[in-house]
Amino acid sequence: MNYKINLLFWLLSILTLSCQNPQKPMEPRFDWQETLSCPPGYPIEVYKGGLYNKNEGYTSLYLGPHTGKRGWGATGRSMSSGVKALPDSLAVTWVSYAEDCFYKVNAKLDKEKMTQLFRTSYQLKNIDDTFSDEYYNTIVVGMAPGGVVVVWLAGIGRQTEVGRYQGEKTVIPQAEIDHLDEHDQLIFDPKFRKETMESEPIVPKEVQEAHKGKPIPYGLWDTYRIRYNWVPVFEIPNEGKMGDIIINYFNGEIEDIKREEIPLMNFEKKTIPRRISMEWKSKEGKLYAGEIFFNEASIFQAFKEFYEKNLLTHAQLKIRVNMPNTYITFMLTDGEKEIPVKTDKLKVY
Fold first, then answer.
1. I want to staple 81 with a disulfide (CB 3.0 to 4.6 A). Which of 33, 160, 220, 300 is the partner?
2. CA distance 338 to 323
3. Residue of 41, 26, 36, 34 whose CA lies nearest to 198
4. For position 3, what pLDDT does the model report?
């Protein structure tokens, strides 16, 4: 009898504790890694902080110096790939070597948007023309001069911006610096920061020369984020057919367009394209590929002329292959006005 009473008491105690301390629902978990980005010529290094989840700790962004040589938005090294909950905030202190100063940011992330993107698959075409389901797998945190912070989600062939945040200049107390080991103190040495900017593995010589004597273009990376109503239109000679396309945008986003989706029928609000990789096939079945890097000044001026009075204007970026399939021209047009767009690099294979 006593045994039954004790057992009943024990069960009631567990039930009471369960009611008093209800279990929180398990957060969704995804396989992802962290990485940094910065513009070429404007290297950064995180001093402390990272991506935080209030229930499960944080993922450090202390990843060493980042050069930005691969471009704004490009992914770099990572230290913690694995299945884990998504962050709900970003708290980072970093050094901007080009500005010779430190910034800090403490911002709430759009976790709902990130969760939706991580949950949703997108199709990637394989080399044999079959399709496979892919998912975002990287959180990219970019820092640009002026304390600009942008966060993207990246996967194979795709990258999407999820937020823009503002850092503020900060000064690290000397007492805090004194407690660091000798290596960690280096980024607080003005001589070391100057040597970093002069190091060719960090800032290539041609970039140093291009930036020499010029002011830092504050505001440029927000200009990259402006979206316009436009659509690419591809014109292939002699009844040729378009293949697959990858567009890299100045704002760091990447979009893959499959040949089954061409021609694109709807105007969409997109940022300005930086690079296009495209394939097409001649009527005879010969396969061609083109790689295009737009001249930044030319394409931005073209968009400015069309949209400075009305951001709701609709335009086509006409991409026209010549008759012998050896050259490509580019024209921004609204059906009446046409503005040619120059390239910095154009290759046809």
1. 33
2. 21
3. 41
4. 41
Tens digit of pLDDT for each residue in 278-327? Answer: 999 998 899 999 999 999 999 999 999 988 888 778 999 999 999 999 99
Distance of CA 315 to the CA centre of its chain: 25
Q: Within 10 A of 1 (CB to CB), how many other CB atoms are there?
A: 5
Of 182, 22, 197, 177, nearest in space to 100 by CA = 197
Neighbour tally for 293: CB within 10 Å: 15
Dihedral sign from CA coordinates of 148, 31, 255, 66: positive
Return d(Cα 72, Cα 40) in angstroms, integer.
7
Q: How many residues does the chain have?
A: 349
- Tell me if 315 sits within 8 A of 334, measured CB to CB: yes
CB distance 328 to 276 below 8 Å: no
Task: Report residue 289 as tokens.
Answer: 């590929």
In terms of DSSP H, where are the helices of 142-203? Answer: 174-178, 190-198
Cα dist from 235 to 7, 253, 313, 316, whole Å: 80, 24, 22, 12
Torsional class of 237: left (φ above 0), alpha (ψ -120 to 50), beta (otherwise): beta
Long-range Cβ contacts of 326-335 (<8 Å, 24+ apart): 328/290, 328/292, 330/292, 330/294, 332/230, 332/299, 332/302, 332/303, 332/306, 334/306
Q: Cα(70)–Cα(38) distance, rounded to whole angstroms?
A: 9
Residue 148 pairs with which residues in a beta bridge?
144, 166
